[in-house]
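Renewal narrative, Specific Aim 1. Our central claim is that a sequence can be written position by position from structural information alone. The example that follows is taken directly from our test logs and has not been curated for this report. It begins with the structure tokens describing the chain, in the order in which they were read.
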């Protein structure tokens, strides 16, 4: 990885001025090959309901393809005014200016709150600098897709390789990484549930690092085993072994300090409504 990255720096940084200037790009201009663009849009399952933001949009190809092929809206943020002009001209030529916007500016200054899909072909250190802003600004469920460069300890939810014959650096392929922004589920949650006609008080303590939660649950003060815990976007699921005869399956959507969904006994179809309330809010660990 380090060798590949070094080779990329040599191949791409030669024309860049050595002393950092306010308008010096953090990453040089290299286009994403068309087959890789298609795979990025496919991984993010971009549809007409999406608003895609491409950070460092170059000639605008990712935004324009998202609009043309998937009916999405999109915005490209680009530092280089010449590339912004090229992207605007191409959007006009393809008749997509209604939905494809291109703005000149620094990607670090742009508010990302409106995005439902974020794409990037930047360096790992830029991705890592962006990480706290992604967790601060992006809604749960937003898909983040990065071409070739990872986010270090923040492991992707999905990874794919795409052949790129004649690639200008490294092996003839691109690696794509996708993350789904998680809701903040961290903290202490409480709920009550009648089991065998007896009300039981549950308490769950959730710790969360990036999109990965860990959970400890007690039922009337007694620890209960949890398995198959999953958090994706704002949806949480887990199984709880309450007694040798009762495994309960919980699933809910988290909004603010409320989790609302259903609970059912494993192996049975009938589910009942379930609600939990967060009584102490925790923080997502981003290190
Ligand atoms: C590797 S290219 C990717 C272009 C396009 N997204 C693609 O995949 O084809 C990175 C782009 O980011 C732009 N860029 C670099 N630093 C930037 C910054 N701080 N703010 C906005 N754009 C930046 C560069 O000018 C370049 O066009």
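The sequence written for that structure reads:
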């Amino acid at each position: 990885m380090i060798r590949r990255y070094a080779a990329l720096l040599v191949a791409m940084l030669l024309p860049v001025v050595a002393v950092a200037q306010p308008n010096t790009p953090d990453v040089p201009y290299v286009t994403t090959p068309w087959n890789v663009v298609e795979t990025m849009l496919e991984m993010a399952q971009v549809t007409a309901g999406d608003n895609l933001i491409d950070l460092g949009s170059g000639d605008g190809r990712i935004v324009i393809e998202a609009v043309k092929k998937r009916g999405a809206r999109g915005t490209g943020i680009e530092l280089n005014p010449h590339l912004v002009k090229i992207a605007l001209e191409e959007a006009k030529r393809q008749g997509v200016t209604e939905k494809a916007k291109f703005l000149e500016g620094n990607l670090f200054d742009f508010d990302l709150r409106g995005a439902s899909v974020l794409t990037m072909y930047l360096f790992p250190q830029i991705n890592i600098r962006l990480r706290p802003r992604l967790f601060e600004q992006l809604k749960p469920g937003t898909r983040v897709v990065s071409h070739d460069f990872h986010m270090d300890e923040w492991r992707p939810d999905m990874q794919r390789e795409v052949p790129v014959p004649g690639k200008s650096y490294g092996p003839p392929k691109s690696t794509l990484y996708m993350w789904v922004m998680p809701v903040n589920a961290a903290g202490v949650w409480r709920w009550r549930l009648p089991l065998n006609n007896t009300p039981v008080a549950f308490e769950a303590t959730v710790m969360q690092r990036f999109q990965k939660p860990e959970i400890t649950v007690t039922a009337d003060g007694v620890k209960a085993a949890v398995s198959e815990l999953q958090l994706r976007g704002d949806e949480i699921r887990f199984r709880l072994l309450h007694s040798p005869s009762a495994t309960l399956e919980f699933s809910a959507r988290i909004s603010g300090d409320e989790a609302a969904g259903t609970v059912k006994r494993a192996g049975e179809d009938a589910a009942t409504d379930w609600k939990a309330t967060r009584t102490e809010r925790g923080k997502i660990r981003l290190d």
